[in-house]
Amino acid sequence: MNRLVLISGCSGGGKSTLLTELGRRGHTIVEEPGRRIVKQELESNGTALPWVDSAAFARRAIEMAIADHTASGRAGWTFFDRGLIDAASALQYLTGEPALERLSAAHRYNRSVFLTPPWPEIYTTDPERRHSFEEAVAEHDRLLATYPALGYEVVVLPKITVADRADFILDRLRAN
């Protein structure tokens, strides 16, 4: 059984908070490549930022997500805040480069992918997330179509407390 689990979906939908909760419970978590890249680029005055050079940003996210996936051979569940498919989907959307299917086939995750739905009541921007809620919803809608096309089962997370969301995911994974 593939124990590498993606949590994806709408930006600002509570993914990072949920990953923190799963980590608190002893599971291995992998921080979102995009946030790590933005921090690095801001610290070094780089240009691979989604609001400066979105294609360069997506390519860096793909590289980082492949490295994360490759390094994640631990026992137990490993939860990813986004991952390779999100980055490759973004690059394909931006440039038309058809790498999504090839990369997805080479680096598989657990069949169940958990998506956070648009949740305007908790959406905020910050120095690393500058896009609008409408842009976040459009991204979510693309991912909602992309994952099933690649053979994944999409499970949209309910809008419940963080602890209840963590329980929901763990219960769902145990049942599979």
Automatic annotation (TrEMBL):
Name of this chain's protein: ATPase
InterPro entries, per database record: NadR/Ttd14_AAA_dom, P-loop_NTPase
Short name of one Pfam family: AAA_28
Domain NadR/Ttd14 AAA, chain residue ranges per copy: 5-165
Domain of life: Bacteria
Gene source species: Rhizobium fabae
Upper taxonomic lineage: Bacteria, Pseudomonadati, Pseudomonadota, Alphaproteobacteria, Hyphomicrobiales
